[in-house]
Amino acid sequence: TKNDILLYSYLSAEPGANDPIESAVRFAAESDLEILKSRPNKHEVPGYKVTGFVPFNPNTKMSNATVVINETNEVFRVAKGAPQVIIKLVGGNDDAVHAVNTLAGRGLRALGIARTIPGDLETYELVGMITLLDPPRPDSAETIRRCNAYGVEVKMITGDQLIIAKEVAHRLGMSRVILDAGHLVDPDKSDEEITQHCERADGFAQVIPEHKYRVVELLQKRGLLVGMTGDGVNDAPALKKANVGIAVHGCTDAARSAADIVLLAPGLSTIVDGITTSRAIFQRMR
């Protein structure tokens, strides 16, 4: 049921994490579930005790919680994460794949929730999917258009699936030439070939942090000047490597120290101000 999905996703959400997805999951569960509304202690779920927690990791693309049911002392695990990862974890599910693709076609992200079957901590079954609307920022399309007008090419990098990336690119007025990030590290292709693909692509999907560094590296080998945005610890190498590393609003200290420019306002429109200002300075110097 809907309540099962909300309960299990709440149990596997990181308490106190400042992550927009975790906040959304916790808020949805707290708004809907009766047992979470009237509880005396905000940090506990009545009847359950979380004994272990593995936070979300960009490489595994899921978080994992070990939970004890107080009444029966039964132990189970809950996993929450990228739909393709969870579907693989439960051994495949065609209905779920179809549902995820249908949602993605409408630009909606999905999160998979799975729990272990009673008496076995290794075998998972699918509980269900949560849908999330993660629209581009309202100023993004305009920012991209202005960058292009200044001769700056914009490429989108996302951990989302290919189908969602294409939908978002379309909404932002970009072409839908999106590469699966797996191509960037394909051992069967020559560096030359990968570099060409990288240069032609409008974006990359299903990216893990190492891929960001790879994109910068390939484009720089072509003699291009590369600016890269990022906010997390794992973006720091790519920000450092880029000609201009741009840490966005609300970034971690690691990203801030690796970057050349730190944006203080939310969104990306400030980048265009940076371009116009630096060009004015350059003209004066000339």
From TrEMBL:
Taxon lineage: Eukaryota, Fungi, Fungi incertae sedis, Mucoromycota, Glomeromycotina
Family the UniProt entry places it in: Belongs to the cation transport ATPase (P-type) (TC 3.A.3) family. Type IIIA subfamily.
Any GO MF annotation of the entry: ATP hydrolysis activity
NCBIfam families in UniProt: ATPase_P-type
SUPFAM superfamilies found in the cross-reference section: HAD-like (SSF56784), Metal cation-transporting ATPase, ATP-binding domain N (SSF81660)
Membrane topology (UniProt): Multi-pass membrane protein
Name assigned to this protein: H+ ATPase
Compartment annotation: Membrane
GO cellular component, one term: membrane
Keyword field: ATP-binding, Magnesium, Membrane, Metal-binding, Nucleotide-binding, Phosphoprotein, Transmembrane, Transmembrane helix
Origin species: Rhizophagus irregularis
BP term (GO), one: monoatomic cation transport
Top-level taxon of origin: Eukaryota
A Pfam family the protein falls into: Hydrolase
